[in-house]
C-alpha cells in the first residue's frame, strides 16, 4: 500500500498540536458547561502531560489548555473524564521514583484544570499507574503498582486495583487482584515465563467495566492473556475465565471489548516490536456466550507484513474503540475500529463474526518529525455524532474523521 491511503473515511482536520504531537492512549470528551466539546488527550511521554482541544467544530480543532509533567521521568499515558472530573495516570520510567499514581483534576473551567488530589502509588517495586478506566464517576479501575506489592518477577510489577473516588479529595482502595503466582508468597507457583525476546510481563493493561455487567471486569493481561473477573464483591475479585493463547503467539493482550448483545468479545494484542519482530499482532473475535469458556472464532483480516514494513516502525494491532459507556460516545456491536500503528486506523464489520470484513481504513502520510519516518496511529475515539478522533504516537497529533460506512 502507499505511504498514505484512505477508504470509507473522510478526513476533516489534522492538528499537529504545535510540535507536541506524541499522544498516548488517553482520549476523553467533556461537554463543558458552556456547551463546548473538549477533547482531552494524554501525551505519550515527557515533557507534556495532557492537552485539551475544543472539537465543537471537528473541522477546526483549537487548543484550549495544556500542562507539563511534574518530572521528565514520568508519563501520563492514560486519562478519563466524567463530567467535570478528570483522572490522569502517572507512570515513572523506573521503579521507586515519584510522583507515581494518578491525579484528579477539576476541569469545570477547561482552560484552568485544577488539581484536587494525587493518589500515591509509588514504592520500591512500583512504577505507578499505566492505565485507568473511569466511566461511572465512582470507581477507578486501573493497572498499577503499589508500595506493598512484591512481584515474584520484576516484570510483573502492576496488578488490578479498584479505587473509590466518590469523594475525589480522598480516594480509597477497595479491592485488588493479581494473577496467582505473580506476588511473592502466593500459594500458586509463578507463571512460566515467555521466551526472553517475548517476555513483556504478567500484568494487566486495560481494565474495562461496563454498566451492562457492573459485576464483571474485562482485563487484557499482557502475557497472561484475556481475563474475566467477578467484581460483585469489589473487596474480593474472583477469576471467572482466562483465555491464554501465547505462546505460540507473542504476548501483550491489550484491550477486551464485550459485545454484550451478541455474546462476543473483541480482543486486541499490542505490537511492541519494530519491523515485524512480533508479527502477527491481531484483533480476535471470541465467542463468550459461555463466559467460563471463551472460544476464539476468527481474526480481523490484515494486509501482509510486507505492505507496511518500515524500518524502526511498528505494524500490528494496538488499541480498540471501547464502546465507552458515556452519553457522548458512539456505540456499535457490529463495527470494530482498531489502530495498527503504521497500518493506520482500520474498520471491520463483524455482522458475520466468523468472517469479519474490512470496511474502511485511514493511513495518513508520515508526519513531520516522525522518528521512524512512518505514521504510528495509537488510539481511537468516536463521539455520539459519529466523529472519529485518532492520534499518532510520536509526532502527528490529532486527526478528525467521518465514517462513510
Give me the secondary-structure topology.
Layout: E1 5-7, E2 9-15, E3 23-31, E4 37-43, E5 48-54, E6 62-68, E7 74-75, E8 79-82, E9 85-92, E10 101-106, E11 114-120, E12 129-134, E13 139-144, E14 159-164, E15 172-177, E16 207-210, E17 213-220, E18 226-230, E19 238-243, E20 253-259, E21 264-269, E22 283-287, E23 295-299, H1 305-308, E24 335-339, E25 345-349, E26 357-363, E27 377-382, E28 387-392, E29 398-403
Antiparallel strand pairs: 1-26, 2-29, 3-4, 4-5, 5-6, 7-9, 8-9, 9-10, 10-11, 12-13, 13-14, 14-15, 16-17, 17-18, 18-19, 20-21, 21-22, 22-23, 24-25, 25-26, 27-28, 28-29
Provide structural commentary.
β4 and β5 form a beta hairpin. 1% of the residues lie in helices and 42% in strands. It is mainly β. It has a single domain (5-188, 198-403), classed as Methylamine Dehydrogenase, Chain H, CATH 2.130.10.10. The model has no long low-confidence stretch (mean pLDDT 97). The two termini are 21 Å apart. It contains 1 helix and 29 strands.
